[in-house]
Design a protein that fits this description.
Blueprint lengths: L1 E6 L5 E7 L9 E7 L5 H27 L14 H12 L6 H13 L11 H14 L4 H18 L27 H8 L3 H7 L2
Antiparallel strand pairs: 1-2, 2-3
Length: about 210
């Protein structure tokens, strides 16, 4: 685990980030900065506390990464980019005539807006934000269906030891409260609602 930094435009602050690599999304911000030339004791104290916080965050991240697959599965079988795991799950579990799983992946990629997502980034709060994203974008049962598929992926990942606790356990799949069904269903939505998995979803959505 590396920690990188850069100067802001005015060069009076140094910004810190996690350095996972050079691909887009592999340098997420830590949310901590230090003053390059502290002007008083308050700013000096800030720098000291900020550097201590960076050390704590670095240690926590290392522990989280090491816990992935620990004592269960060889580390080389784990994917550092969770989007790759999601894509592989979709490829292995997609069904003819129903694209809800593929579409859930498409919407998740649009939601995160980057090409690299570490498993440690998948938190309960992120799951809540993704559900909110779907509810704001779709009506009726569509957000419920897409998020349910997302939960399938997280359930599988938890069983594969990517997570000690499933981040979606306390974040259920729900329909858009503004409508029970779309008035004008798109062709793809009709396939989803009338497909072979509809009954399964109504009985087992969680």
């Amino acid at each position: 685990m590396k920690i990188g930094s850069y100067l802001n435009r005015t060069k009076d602050k140094r910004i810190y980030y996690y350095d996972y690599g050079r691909l887009p999304g592999q340098r997420p911000a830590i949310g901590v900065f230090t003053y390059t030339k502290p002007k008083n004791q308050t700013e000096k104290n800030h720098n000291k506390q900020a550097l201590e916080l960076i050390d704590v965050k670095k240690s926590q991240t290392i522990i989280e990464q090491q816990s992935i697959g620990f004592a269960y599965t060889p580390p080389h079988k784990f994917k550092e980019n969770f989007l790759e795991y999601y894509a592989e799950y979709v490829d292995k579990n997609k069904t003819d005539g129903n694209r809800a799983l593929q579409n859930s992946f498409k919407q998740f990629k649009e939601f995160v807006g980057r090409s690299f997502v570490s498993p440690v980034d998948i938190t309960e709060n992120l799951c809540k934000e993704f559900r909110k994203f779907l509810l704001a974008k779709f009506k009726g049962e569509t957000p419920q269906g897409y998020y349910a598929r997302f939960k399938w992926v997280l359930n599988a990942a938890t069983k594969d030891k990517y997570f000690q606790v499933n981040p979606t356990d306390e974040v259920s799949a729900i329909p858009n409260p503004s409508a029970t069904l779309k008035k004008n269903l798109e062709v793809e939505d009709q396939v989803e609602f009338l497909g072979s998995e509809q009954l399964y979803d109504r009985l087992f959505l969680f």
